[in-house]
């Protein structure tokens, strides 16, 4: 019988012998490859964390004890070992389990996540609650070396000094974020990795000194008595110990027995402990070991070749942006591209290759990336900061305080704006329009198609103040290519000049608006269609003009309702007494769960059919 068959509930794993662990880990890897190759998902991080998860599950008692994952993209084995084996077959699909820990999914998911560097903060909160309640559950935060570069993680590490009870932090160090890890922390961990294990080293030193008669023994005793000074001599740096944590490691993160011993020891210490485990991203699957970035988050693939099952169709918006930025930097070396640990995802990897001086990766540090860019701008450069919509949420204050307030010319490329599909609620890019358009002095744009993205980027680079361009995940729309009015500040683009019904659409929704227009045309109605290029202010002149021969104003956007163009336009219509009836079509103010983007649009009524029906309903 397969060992995995005997694991149906949390803690079942403890019934298996230590000798069975290597085979169990092989079975887990086969299982993970099976589901991720079918459903897509995070492959490399999960394969690297199999033994680590197994070891934790053998020393902890779930759900009483708490494992708090960071990012959570490595928690598939945890889900598998906590009674979700069958459910995992529909991982990341509509109604199936999420690709990230989710409190509503299982009692064993102590804390939800998706964004990086939160685990130590949350674990400290759990530890304080335990002190207040007088309970004795164990609390473990699992954080990657990439996530440890994030400001929140460092703020939390600083705060561990206040802790008077045990907290185990497992540092899962695979030398990589999605791409190579960057910065001082990465260098520091690299030094520890290349140094010999502290414990062995200490023994070696004691043995060597003891072999020198008389003097040797005396010195060895002295050193033994002074734990700190010997560590200071032989461990490269003492960052964690100096911060008040007990450091254990480095430990082989693919050896369950060694990790169990380290975790048990760490859990006995009265205070914060960091166990440093070394793992390999993609472990056990050659294609992922060789190409960990490609297999970070991946669409369905053939296990044998590692090739994607669905051939890519057309260029993505990210690729279109990357190519245009390449041309712009070629023309103007004052442009500096900035990423927060996402050179591949944001399309900046090619910029790094061609113009290394004009490229900066600051690590998983969106807040820092924005203020860093503000500094560059204040010093006369033109930073282009590419960040996913969902991660830009982190840098709200920096955009207000460091960029907009000083009117600095920073260009923000907000990728993955709108629905993102299977990564689900933690990753949807549906809030940025709301939180960006309320900031004074910020120009916010959204292109209807690939060409317009390029035109907007050129416009943004040559503007003066801060400019945002938001564009969605996936294949760039190439339709409506005949409509290419030059981009001019706060001028929107009328695509069809019709009557009675005006459809104002933003970004990708312009294509949908055209489909709706065709349907209405079949009913003999000639609606107007306007591409709202500038989202930050409502085009009052346009609304007044439209009111002359239209009665219904339909706004169509893939963002939450609050703060949408439609809602703001409706307020202007009411305030200014403009004769138009608004019909605001957006997503609801909800967290949108994982499913494919098409399923999500279907569910929330953002398809051409659904919009057409809503209009017909309204006009009767
Ligand atoms: C705030 C934030 N920024 C960016 C990301 C995108 N992201 C997901 S995983 C990851 C790398 C994490 O590296 P590490 O913590 O070392 O974990 P590993 O994948 O190597 O196991 C990044 C940058 C994110 N999840 N959250």
Describe this structure in words.
The chain has four domains: 21-193 and 246-290, Thiamin diphosphate (ThDP)-binding fold, Pyr/PP domains (Rossmann fold), CATH 3.40.50.970; 196-234; 317-470, 3-Layer(aba) Sandwich (Rossmann fold), CATH 3.40.50.970; 493-619, 3-Layer(aba) Sandwich (Rossmann fold), CATH 3.40.50.920. 40% of the residues lie in helices and 15% in strands. The protein contains 25 helices and 16 strands. Strands 7-6-8-9-11-10 form a six-stranded parallel beta sheet, with helices on both faces. Helix 14 runs parallel beside helix 20 (450-462). It is globular and about 80 Å long. The N and C termini lie far apart (64 Å). Residues 208-217 and 219-227 have low confidence and may be disordered.
